[in-house]
Sequence to fold (256 residues):
Amino acid sequence: MRGIQAGDADALSQLYDRYNGILKALILRVIHSEAEADDLLQEIFMEIWNQASAQKGKPLGWMVTLARRRAIDGLRKKQAYARAEERLQNETEQQPDAWVHNATEDEIVLSDTRVLIRKVISGLPPAQQQAIDLAFFRGMSQREIAAKTNTPLGTVKTRLELGLKKIYDGLKDLKDEL
Amino acid sequence: MNFEQFQNQSRLYVIGALEPEELDEFEKARKKFGKKADDFIGKCYALHEAFALSLRPAKSSDAIKERLMAMVKAKKQS
Fold:
C-alpha cells in the first residue's frame, strides 16, 4: 500500500494480483453479473489508486468495505435489483446454503483462514446466516429482510445480533488459533 | 443503552443494518462511551474482511488488469 501511496504502478499491479479474486467474489456475490462485476472491479481498483494516499487502516479491510459499498451502490443505481433478485432466488433454490456452500471443499483449495472463517459462519443456524447474508451482501435493512423473509422485525434484529456476535467472537478465537 | 447493547448495535452499524430510528440512539451512546466505543466499532469492521474471505475467490479476466494498468499509466502521464 505504501508503494501505491507513492505512485508506484507496479505496487498496484501486485495488489491487484493478490486481492482481485477476493474482491471480485464479493462484488459478484452482490450483483450476480460477471460482466458488471469485472467493470466494477476495474473501477474499484482505480478508486484504490486514487484514494490510497488517504488510507491509514488495514488495506484489505478498507478495500473490502469500499468494494461492498460500490457493489451495493451499483446494484441500486443500475436498477438491477429485481433481475439479480430473481437470479439469487434461482441460485438459492439450487443451493440452499449458497453463501457458505458456494463450492464444495473438494473443488477449491482454501487457505487456513478461509476454512476457519467458513467454519464459524457455517456453524450459525440457517436463519441467522440468511439474515446476515441479506444484510451484508444485499445491503438490505432489517425491515427489508423482515418483508422478504416474512419474519417479524424483532426476530430479524435478534437473528442479526446473535449471528454477528457469534461470528465476531469466532474471529477472536480464530486470531488465537492462527 | 449499556455497553453490551452498544456492542450489539455496533455490529449491525458496520454492515449498515441499523434502522434510521436506531441511529440517533446509537450516536448518542457512541458519544457517551467515547474512545472505547470508537475502538470497538473499528474492530467490528473485521466482519467485512471475514465475509469477503468466506467466499471462494473469483477469476477476473486478464483484460481488466490490462485496462486498469493502462488507465493508471495514462493518469500518471497526464
Observations:
- Residues 1 and 29 of chain B are 7 Å apart (CA to CA).
- Residues 62-77 of chain B form the longest helix (16 residues).
- Chain B has one domain: 3-77.
